[in-house]
Amino acid sequence: MKFPENWLREHVTTTASHERLSECLTAIGLEVEEDTVIGGVLTGVIVAEILSLQKHPEADRLNVCQVAVGDGQTVQIVCGAPNARAGLKAPLARIGAKLPGDFEIKAAKLRGVDSFGMLCSAKELAIDLDASGLLELPEDAPVGTALADYLGLPDARFELKLTPNRADCFSIRGIAFDLAAALESQVNPLQIPEVPVNSRKAIEVGVDVEAAADCPRYCGRVIEGLDSNARTPLWLSEKLKRSGIRPISPLVDITQFVMLELGQPMHAFDADKLTGPIGVRYAELNEPCRLLDGREMELSPEFLVITDADKAVAVAGVMGGLDSSVSETTTAVFLESAHFAPSAIIGRARKLGLHTDASHRFERGVDPQLPLLALERASALVLEIMGGHAGPITKAETPEHIAVAKPVLLRRARLQRVLGMQVADARVEQILRALGMQVKPDEAGWQVVAPSSRFDISIEEDLIEEVARIVGYEHIPVRTPSGEVPLVSRSELALDESALRAQMLAMDVQETINYAFVDAALLQDWALDQDAVALVNPLSAELAVMRTSLLPGLVKTLTNNSARQQARLRFFEMGRVFSVQEAVAPLERQMLAAVLCGPSLPEQWSAKSTAVDFYDIKAMLDAVLAGSGFSAAYRVSDKPFMHPGRSAEVLVDGQVAGVIGALHPGLNKVLDLPGDVFAFELDLSSLPERALPKATAVSRFPSVRRDLALLVPESVSWGEIEQCVRATLGKRLHALTVFDQYRGTGLQPGTKSLAMGLILHDISRTLHDVEVEQSISDLLEKLSKDCQAVLRG
Fold it and tell me: SS3 for 393?
């Protein structure tokens, strides 16, 4: 936001110096990014008029000018400016004048002709960057008047770096409220009376707003009988120039002026180019609209457009159309002033390759109460500068879509506790009222209603922040915290994620951190896109949705490392995944995932290199779970991204907690993986509280081992057999291991042989052979019944 200091002083009464203003603005959070003095040294520079000029006898590019300096006096000036001409009024630096850069004007002889001063450009006076010719002053500029007095100099231009939440400060009035509060002053009232209606001219059939939720207030007025020869007055054009805006024409300049002063973007249509009715709706697919910059745009339904007889003539809140724009011949204008919801404007200008002052403000939020006020202000300026007759205001409003500020309680005790200091009640009330808020004291503090321009005020902490920044952060005491800080001990039952991370690192697996945003197409390749949370305004197409699994990002990291000639790849990640929930915020789950590829061991001389397999990744997962006090069971997985015959679901306490195995061959091909990739993903959020370690006595009595070889159908898994064995033998079973698996000659088709070792013992006595044999007999009977297992002969 750029603006001149003198314009700001018109809206807030203060005797503070320029330096004090600059410091104050930064201190209250409106950071002064640039502070440029305008016309600081113009001693001896006056308004002059060129009466006549002749070509220099010795130089083709120079003119010898006779210049009036007031009181009937004239001086001779040699000038080479291309726009020098008789009748032109321009600044003259007389002999002895001092210009910016410590440059003093002296009498000179140019190519043999005397020159008693210098006619100046705006750049030479340091009031503008234009150096193309003399600074042309209005025809009614009084000759002989000091230029500084005539132009209201010296002045300064502030450029503020505003945070996105301070949309109200994209206007002189908004900044004035903050400054008044800080300087314990008041904002000067802005008297904007209603313009007398002396014309019946109005837009035919009125305004039809279809997109009421995104345009809850639209108003406009026709002003006819304009003087097309009128020019923007000096006071207005100077304010625009010093705000970094080039004056164009009275109608355009007036809308720009009102936007800078009040914060309401406006647009001026040539009323004679409109056929009516005016409408506000969403664009049709590929609907054309030629913008003011001459480009023909094809819009989509996400754009809000202003229409004339149902033809798009402007992109709402972004830029007007060329076909309905005002020109030097315009004699009737339709002034538009509307409120657009930020959500309907955000990102639209960027999609068109634009960045306009209007879109910059509407994206951050404009006061919904401003349109009528701004329309009256602009109408009065049009009538003052161009004459004409104002028609009635045409408007369309849907109040239910206009937000109404609610009272917020600011508690005196809460304010003191947060700031660590006491602020006098009178000062608090002065600050809040100076900021334009309605304040009603009560026993606890104050009931405060923020003005409609302050979208950022919604809770008590917002009001505390307002008091803090206006009082000054430098006045808040710095104190070392005292007293005991209670330490909350971590429950032993909770999962220790740092221990999991350390355990994975100890198993020679490298940790990675990937973006939580991924490409939607990548999730589609994995068939993991069904519950993906799409971002409303993504940074790029590759970061358009939230991840639903850690594995796609991990495997992409693996692929990138493989492309850099890395063969043994072992990565893990611990982080959150996100999925859609109806009518509530997305569901977040904490996950642990790992991927392995390449040799199982680093290259060495003493052993042959073998590739990782299912049992490497299973051993890793079992170790991780065991380290946290859990054990896992496994059953066949039906995940589409996993290998149908080499993957399993992970069950902890009977509940599915993850998946493990090799990636599907089809996915391998799509992702161009370097070979078989084995992975697991564990949902840490689904794990129960872990059991505390318990001490048990060590048996003094010998154990007994029995080995059994069983013939079982192929469809029976080891997990089913293990479950049956443990359930049958109970506490008598000390250990169980499977040490052989056989398929082939000597066995019936569809069967396999499993050999397992059973270690039995009793904590209180030695087991007798009879007891052991009876246990084995009961076990074989149970295995035969539940698992179709028979003892192999």
Answer: strand
